[in-house]
Input
Amino acid sequence: MVSLGACGDSPVGDQDESQPVALNLPATPVISAGGAFTCLLSTAGRIVCWGRVAAAAADSFWRPVQIGDAAGEPFAAVAVGDNACALTTSGRAYCWGGVNNHGQLGTGTRTPAATPTAVAGGLRFVAIAVGAGLTCALTARGQTYCWGRGEGGIFGGERDTPRDRYVPTLIAATDGLQAIEAGSVVCGLARSGVPLCWGEATGSFDPGAWIEPGVCQSRYFIRFEERGCSSPTPVEGSPVLRTITTGGETACGVAADGQAWCWGGGWLGTLGNGTAGSRTHAVKPVRVSRFGDFTSVSAGATHVCGLRATGDIVCWGNNFRGYLGRGTREPGASEPAPISSSRRFVALASGWAHVCAIDVDAAVWCWGQGETGALGRSPQVGDAFAPVEVEGLRAH
Output
């Protein structure tokens, strides 16, 4: 166990950020997918999860189980990555999960938690995001606090000697963000709709091929040759966005007109513009091909899926374990193509290696890697190359 004192960190904030905020219950169910499990937040503020989450029994971890509430308060938001975190209606943050090796639960230790456990510091948040060993949250003032993995300069100029944080730590120069997302790196949206990102994606399926020369100065990219971006930096040439998502090497967003844009690594076709192969990458966002009516996009480790205004879901990128939902284990795709389903969907979430969605009849469907139980069925069945329904579960 690593104590708070041993880590040397303390929450940074003022009295305003420890006062309760008023968060509404979700108007529609919210689904969130991560590395090894999936969670569903109902309109009544209850959370159900399935997959390798510490709250589930070892012999039936793939079956949906209800997560206990937090001191009697309903939940208003949920986010899943390597672990899960949620916000109550008063803005309190709680995290849980069987992985806490970087302190990403924010409790001041590296001890896993089977049930929602209060994040240290007493700060109140309005949005929360969970990525790869890292959690970030926004206050009502638009300031960002993160905790967990320090690799890649997430907490400042520590590229050579990264240090994990076990409690919420203020990220400089983020006053005024309206949204936050975490994957391998962290991205937020300014109130103007301009994306700002920081951190480096140090691992890659195409090592070194998409590294940009020089240092991070006034523009963001996921990997600069000499010095990466260790503070929130604008994404050069980006249109104004209303949503944003980050995954492994690629980030994407949707503009007000429904057009999707992506930037970062693109070797596996995750840019969605018809390009792929070694050295494929984009410093400036590129327009995703074929469709321009997206309501949201969600990036996994090596794939991206988008929900269209028609209720259709299209995916692009890698298809190694059926991430694209096309019914076969065919090669990946560098442009969006429909999943193998005639259902109409209202919500979508990509995990690292699976995808889940809610249809218009409140049924939940998942596809992709099956061994973790995150598809809501026994891992012995294996991967799902097309959407399979999570039996006995309805999103209300």
About this structure: The longest strand covers residues 384-394. The domain at 183-345 is CATH 2.130.10.30 (Methylamine Dehydrogenase; Chain H). Residues 4-7 form the longest helix (4 residues). The mean pLDDT is 91.
